[in-house]
Amino acid sequence: MSFKELKITPVTGLLILVNVLAYGAQMLTQNKLANTGLLYGPAVAHGQWWRLVTSAFLHGGLIHIGFNMYLLFVLGPQLEEALGKLRFVLIYLAALFGGTAAVMLFDWQQPTLGASGAVLGLASTLWILLFLQGVAHRQNQVFGLVALNVVLPLLLPGISFWGHFGGVLCGALTGFIIGWLPRKVRIDDRLGLMLLGGLVVILALLSMFAARLPL
User: What are the residues whose beta carbons fall under 8 Å from the beta carbon of 22, sequence distance 6 or more?
Assistant: First the structure.
């Protein structure tokens, strides 16, 4: 795909705008906004539930937000146009809460922020859908992207492995719900949306419950 073929779509554009505005607010507040919005288990456990969502719209620097927004710009429109706005939003939220749930379960005391889990969830969803269509790994460039971002946190300090892994895992799960399940079980669009919505609710509740486990 060339840059001439890339185009912005409504939900993807809105997500990018919110992330950019949030980063601008971080700079204006000298990162006070980041301190009150990043994901931190002890704070979430004491009732600061908003961190489960706000942390996914905050970033640690220009390279961090630039990389995430580039991936969102490249991957988002493809899924949004192919699956529709509502499915796209549910996939994004499932990956977002998948990342926060993994961090709350396995890296509770590590402050975490960034859209990486949600964006990589989109990448793994797209990879699963292409895989189910018979696109081989070597022809599917998204596979390398997903694999690299799962391994990268193990090689470089300061990158949340669990945030990445949780987002990728739940993105892949949504890919199977959308692409594999309808082939095996006769389900209509409404039931498919209900399954995606149910997954989002379960992951959000898991994030909230997991935050209280260490207390």
Answer: 33, 54, 57, 58, 59
